[in-house]
Amino acid sequence: MTLPTRRPGRALRLLRAGADATAAIPAVHWPAQLAASLSEIDATWQESAQLCADAAWTARAAGHSVLGLLRAEDALAPGPDPVAPRALRHLYLSALRYDFRCPTLALLVEQLPPQERDGLDCYSRALYAFALLGQSRPEGLALMRQVLDDADDHLKTLHVLLHGLWLGHDLPHREEQMLQILHRPPFASRTDPIALFREAGALRALGEYRAALASIDRALDLLPPGDVSVHADLVRERSLMAAARDVQHLVGRHAEGIHT
Fold first, then answer.
1. Cβ distance 231 to 194 under 8 Å?
2. Nearest CA to 76 among 34, 107, 54, 44?
3. What's 111's DSSP letter?
């Protein structure tokens, strides 16, 4: 995990906060514990996004989703210390994202007063953009561009936007916009299996089957062992592109037969 550091020992304190929260996940108090730890460290929005997204995913995989521990009003309530409420918001909205609850996520953010909504941190706005994009709502594209201007290539933020585009099948130029994000510096090493998975899906939709297969095979090779659910998603994507390629070949042969 790569985290920004601002003074000696900061990265260690952040890692410890994440590890302590993960260890406490079966207990009902772990979201508040993580929020308090981040407040004590005075975490930036980037640091909060990193730890909260990972913790929300780990809790969901363990059967202890944040959605069963927090209420929406708790996650969106302001407080005198902005760091702790932001962390709870990151946890709750991330959990909605992982469950693909796009309408619920969008409605929660839209219930905020306009001034408060406009003042949301970049990652929270990215999660709102995800919800709009995932429903193929065109206003999500405008918000996505604003987030990209402010995100400074923050990896977690880029992944949220990619996820929304991946879901938004009716968005114009969806695949090209995914590939534009995937050409940003954080993905230059081509060692991120989820990014490669998104790339493969975009290439498949564009009919670039050879390149798509190369991307998904690289993703499968880089995926850490033991991640069964993600592995199944990647295998499913590979089956889809192989089937689409076969259909293309059959259509081509049929057309050749008609013209001979």
1. no
2. 107
3. T
Query: What is the average per-residue pLDDT within 59-67?
Result: 93
178: Cβ–Cβ under 8 A, 6 or more apart, which residues? 162, 165, 166, 198, 199, 201, 202
Which residues, 6+ apart, have CB-to-CB distance to 249 below 8 Å? none
Nearest residue to 209 (alpha-carbon basis) of 234, 246, 175, 173: 246
In this structure, are residues 146 and 128 in contact, taking their beta carbons and an 8 Å threshold? no
Write out pLDDT tens, residues 214-255: 999 999 999 988 778 899 999 999 998 888 886 776 666 656
Going from the C-alpha of 214 to that of each of 227, 228, 257, the distances in angstroms are: 21, 21, 30
Tokens of 94: 């991330």
Q: Residue 8 CB: number of other CB atoms within 10 A?
A: 7
Measure the CA–CA gap between 17 and 12, rounded to whole angstroms.
Answer: 9
Residue with tokens 């585009």: 165
Tokens of 56: 């929300």
**Global pTM value:** 0.90
Tokens of 216: 């998904």
Phi, psi of 23 (to 5 degrees): -65, -30
C-beta separation of 55 from 103 below 8 A: no
Whole-number pLDDT of residue 135:
98
Interatomic CA distance for residues 130 and 128, integer angstroms: 5
State the burial class of residue 228 (Cβ atoms within 10 Å of its Cβ: 0-12, 13-18, 19+).
exposed
Distances (CA, A) of 212 to 100, 125, 181, 189, 255: 24, 30, 16, 17, 24
Running DSSP on this structure, what letter comes out for residue 112? S
Tokens of 158: 């880029």
Max CA-CA distance within the chain?
77
